[in-house]
Amino acid sequence: MPTPDPSTPDQRLTGKAIEVHGLRMAYGKLEVLRGVDLEVEAGMVFCLVGPNGAGKTTTIEVLEGYRQRTAGDVSVLGADPSRGGRGLRDRIGILLQDGGVEPYLTVREVVDATRGYYRRPLPAAELLDIVGLSDQAKVRVRRLSAGQRRRLELALALAGDPELVFLDEPTTGFDPHARLAAWDAIRRLTARGTTVVLTTNVMDEAQALADRVAIIVAGRIVAHGTPLDVVGARGPGSAIRFRLPEGGPALPPELTRMIASSRDDVLELRTVEPAALVNTLSAWALQNGLPLHDLVVAPRSLEDAYLELTAAAAASAPGDEVATA
Amino acid sequence: MRTIRLMFRQARLELRAFWRNPAAAFFTVVFPLLFMVVANVALGPSSGGQQQAAEFYTPAIIAFALVTACYTNLAMGVVVARDAGILKRLRGTPLPTWIYLWGRIATSVIVAGVMVAIVAGYGALAYGVYLPGEHLLALAVTLVVGAASFSALGLAISGLVPNAAAAPAVVNATILPLLLISNVLVRIDDGALADIAGIFPVRHLADALSRAYDPAAPAQGFALDSLAIVGAWGVAGLVIALVTFSWQPRR
């Protein structure tokens, strides 16, 4: 990976690591991908999200060169992945959803072997440090916990110092600490200039990591852009939540109109003008001597948008089979 | 230079993984040796004297060990690695296919070589069985042709096995009957079973090895007709392997 030259930021920003146009994939009569268009700019974290069976893994495996597409144009680092061969595989890293590691070898042995397959590998110590397995270097793979094994697979995906790395559901089965550590590792990759393509069905993960998000449902991209774009595409809005004890004074009507939901004594208000609403709300609360415990002003989350979009897409396409990818 | 280093490393890695896998090491190494001892001790007196039994069983167990290491062990190992997603992961790296297969085959051949040395040594030391000094070339050529052919056949069958759970059943079903009728575990020189065995490569490997082990054999101990049949099976196995080999688990 050449070091990014700060004097020519435009060149890096406009470079496309991946271009996909009209990608289709069919197994017999079953259409798994129905015309997917994607562009991933170099140096970005691109996140493909969608329900199980929507075609995330199929899309990724076409890009990785594991599957032959039925139709469409696909370019990965300027090469066609179905014909890219060794040269392309030397420049990319892959964390599979169902990959395996030789159980009787140690962590260090597997890392060193994998480094040996690449022309410009990262040092083993650095790889183990990135994924936090330095203390497990001499442990045999079969003795690792599920989370440790997944982190080892991440280290193996990074062994060749890839320009582009594919991470298919990288944090499945992680506890919250391990997930944060993995996010940290992924952020460190982007700091090196590595382009990251990841799939997940954890919206927090997409929100935390992604520069660009695409939502895939039943083999089609139904929304794409920055996380804020995707959230905003369903209408702008902020959510304001607070606790309102029962038996207290009633909300004025201009606030009651905004109530989106109420559960127990927690109210959620939605608005496109959060500043005005907060002003009205706090004036009313101070007047009535209410502390407004647990007051939160938050943007609508990617999860909100995701749930709405996937429900809308499923409703608009009745009878569509959702294939397992 | 880089390729040679990669070949060396890959073979060393696979060999290491083999020795650390208790099931593979037991069935490939301990089992044939156990059978050799039992056959010599228990069957020796009933089959015309200890010496004569050892002279039959030494090349026969060499054949058994070679088939187990190259065919059974290779086929099982590849299917298990495929099912576990190990092959799929390697497929995503720049490691060339042939170097991976080389590592697997080299491991089988080295294990077979160690077994041959142990069996031959045991026969010579314990029972004074002839060590084919003058026939060393014939023995070496037979071992190489046998190891290459049975490795190719092991790869071929691995492509036909649906998953790891089915591997022991399919692999053993294809090889155990042949080992039984091919002058390896039991002596069957004539009859219908011997005729059937004559179609398949195990019997010819055993014949070629026992020829090399016969101090009175003509042609420096070479059994060219048997070697040709073993080699032909190996070529067929290679063709099938190239067609059926797959990197991804079959579900």
Summarize it.
Chain A has 325 residues and is α/β, with parallel strands linked by helices.
Q: What does it look like?
A:
The complex is a heterodimer of chains A (325) and B (251). Chain A is of the alpha/beta class. In chain A, 34% of the residues lie in helices and 26% in strands. Chain A contains twelve helices and 13 strands. A six-stranded mixed sheet of chain A has the order 5-6-7-3-8-9, sandwiched between helices. A four-stranded antiparallel sheet of chain A has the order 11-12-10-13. A three-stranded antiparallel sheet of chain A has the order 2-1-4. Chain A starts with 8 loop residues before the first helix and ends in a 9-residue tail after the last helix. The N and C termini of chain B lie far apart (39 Å). Chain B has helices spanning 2-20, 22-43, 50-83, 86-91, 97-127, 136-160, 167-181, 192-197, 201-212, 224-244. Chain B has 251 residues and is an all-alpha fold. Chain B contains ten helices and no strands. Chain B is globular, with a radius of gyration of 18 Å. Chain B has one domain. Chain A binds chain B through residues 64-66, 86, 89-90, 92, 94, 96, 98-105, 109, 113-114, 116-119, 140, 153, 156, 160, and chain B through 5-6, 9-10, 13, 16-17, 20-21, 81, 84-86, 88-89, 91-96, 248-249.
